[in-house]
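Just curious: can you write whichever protein you like plus the matching structure tokens?

***
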Amino acid sequence: MVYGILIHSAENSQKLFLSNFYTPEGNDAQKKARQQAVMRRILDEHFFQIQCASDSSRPPVRSHGHLEEWSPRFQERRHSQQAADITEGIVRFPASPLFRVGKVAVWKQVENIVFIVICDSLENLALANNFLILLINTVFENLKSFGVSGGCLETELMHRPDELLAILHSLLPAGILTFSNLAHAKFSVSQAQELLSQKP
């Protein structure tokens, strides 16, 4: 079962667009401290990946001058520059005062927005990753239908919490991850769009 979902800015941990927890523990008095701890840890990982990508973009040191040495390094450098645009990862949170039982967070950063799914440690991480991809695609498709692009994404997410919750309700009913093949994913997306079209 999914423990919680967080969507926030990749620039800092103060811009939170959506926070939804599915358990009583997630919604207790320590909710804000838990959110901040998760967001800070994910941002640390995000900035670490960006730093590693920028460090590897330095020109390679030439030792023997063989073409074989230059070619793989050039490919790695080009790949690392592309990787800086989208960062992702899996982070473990051990049992602590914030988490009675250890949790795992699967996260992706796309266009300066971080999407996080916090799961129980025994949850199927492939399902969590697939759900996250589906959620990101659905959110961005919904925003594009309103003509939103570029730097306006964060502003639009701040002003559309109901739509985010409707998408989340359709794609993750009661916080339970389900296997999604292409047909089921399209059905879930159509449900989300139907809910959004009913909004006055």
